[in-house]
Amino acid sequence: MAEDVFKALADPTRRRILDELVERDGQTLFEICTRLVTKHGLGLSRQAISQHLAVLESAGLVRTRRQGRYKFHDLNTAPLEHIVTRWLRPDAREGTP
Fold first, then answer.
1. Residue 87's pLDDT is what?
2. What pLDDT does residue 76 have?
3. Contact 5/80 with Cβ under 8 angstroms?
4. Exposed, middle or buried: residue 83 (CB in 10 Å: 0-12, 13-18, 19+)?
5. How many whole angstroms separate alpha carbon 71 and alpha carbon 92?
6. Are the CB atoms for 45 and 89 separated by under 8 Å?
7. 73, containing H or E segment
8. What is the pLDDT of residue 50?
9. C-alpha atoms less than 13 angstroms from C-alpha of 62 in its C-beta half-sphere
10. Phi, psi angles (nearest 5°) of residue 64
11. To 5 degrees, how large is the angle CA 35–CA 37–CA 40?
């Protein structure tokens, strides 16, 4: 699983998408595309952003939920927390504080 996370984080566009979700969680594809264009000057197609979101979702970094006809994207930090625990706080893995 960590390998998928590292592959997902290797792309600067995907890192920008995560930055946008940190700033405002629960965005639609349209909202993410708009923010990437206005704040970062990224003129990628909706399909390209959708593919980046699929990679992030596959790595567990983004969760999607449907509300009516809208699909919202939420940041999931659990895979990153697992990496931090693995290398930066190995004592937490063993159950000690």
1. 81
2. 97
3. yes
4. middle
5. 35
6. no
7. strand 70-75
8. 97
9. 32
10. -115, 150
11. 85
